[in-house]
Amino acid sequence: MDPAVKSPVDGVASARGTLIEAYDGVVCDLDGVVYRGHQVVPHAVESLLSALSADVLVVYATNNASRTPAEVSDRLTELGLPGSGARIVTSAQAAARLVAQRCPAGSTVLAVGGPGVALALEEAGLLAVSPQQMRSDKPVVAAVQGYGANVGWADLAEVAYAVQAGALWVATNIDSTLPTDRGLAPGNGSLVAAVRTAVSVDPVNVGKPNVPLYELSAAVLGTDVGRTLAIGDRLDTDIAGAVALGMDSLFVLGGVHGWTDVAQAEPPARPRYMATDLRSLSSVYVEAVQDAEDSSRWICGEASARVSRAGELVMAQGGSVNERLRAAVRAVWDARDRGSVTFDALAGDGAVLSRELDLAVGLER
Ligand SMILES: [Mg+2]
What are the domain boundaries of the chain? Predict the structure, then answer.
């Protein structure tokens, strides 16, 4: 076998037993992983409780800066997860930490967004002022811009004035969209883009995929990055941020991205692990390995997959849904990396796998 190909026992998790046993801490995304809008994600709560009972430390890290950690904590408590403000890390806190590192204590900072933004700044020893409190004779050293449902033109104008006056501009995240019950709404990134169009300056973005939010999470956990697992449903933020920091990541289905997205991800956004849901934390992680005799074929447990010359996914019968997912994704990654085929996710067995996975995560598309 090619020495570059991992055998099943090489994986850090499979060598130690269950996936979670290989880690001391978990940085868990919320939207799309623990809840979807007003609904709890199936198996999320009991899986996280099981991790906590195995003495794994968990922090919840969210790019959403509008809610305070206490509000998020209350929500988790309602879902049956033990809530404590200290275990929730928001991108507003990462933004405040960055401003506190670069500006003197007590500095005046413009806070735009939900109440979570001003609270994080105050907790970091800074003086938060609202857009309504801004005065042209009292410049701010920094402006922190996060999502808030009530952010309007006057708020964006104050950010633009502050940036033009030389203030450090920090965005809590630049997610262009915000998933809501009625569809996709403009996210913080869309509002940041409006200001950027006006001022021709780029903000510092602390949210995922940039590393400050994950660095703060690891600091709160007190765990080594190499013994910390990031969990998320978005490849371009959750997974790319973990890859950038050298943190292992688990991608779960049922949120923003589906199996075809992960199959077509470039290496900087590819997760170390993938699963339909968080029950995989407490299972032995079966990795996909390349077939020693047919290098286009990837085997995961009882499942196997390859990509045909025509770019169609070809899967053998058998295997659990997670084994089929992992075999399929590895086969597509390999085919893409060789540049040999143009993959069509919905051709061949791809459409069958899509339906199977939708069923497994309880999604109707
Ligand atoms: Mg998410």
Answer: 18-89+210-281, 92-205, 287-360
Query: Taking the model in full, what pTM does it have?
Result: 0.87
Radius of gyration of the chain measured on its C-alpha atoms: 22
29 tagged catalytic: yes
How many Å lie between the centroid of ligand 1 and the Cα of residue 235? 9
Q: Which residues contact 78 (CB under 8 A, 6 or more apart)?
A: none
Architecture of domain 92-205: 3-Layer(aba) Sandwich (3.40)
Active site residue 2: no
Which one of 10, 24, 31, 291 is the catalytic residue? 31
pLDDT per residue as tens digits for the range 146-192: 999 999 999 999 999 999 999 999 999 998 888 777 888 899 999 99
Helix then strand then coil, in percent of the chain rounded to 5, is 40, 20, 40
Contact, 156 vs 191, CB < 8 A?
yes
What is the CATH superfamily name and number for domain 18-89+210-281?
Answer: HAD superfamily/HAD-like (3.40.50.1000)
Asked if 96 contacts 127 with a C-beta cutoff of 8 angstroms, the reply is no
Structure tokens at 243: 């890859």
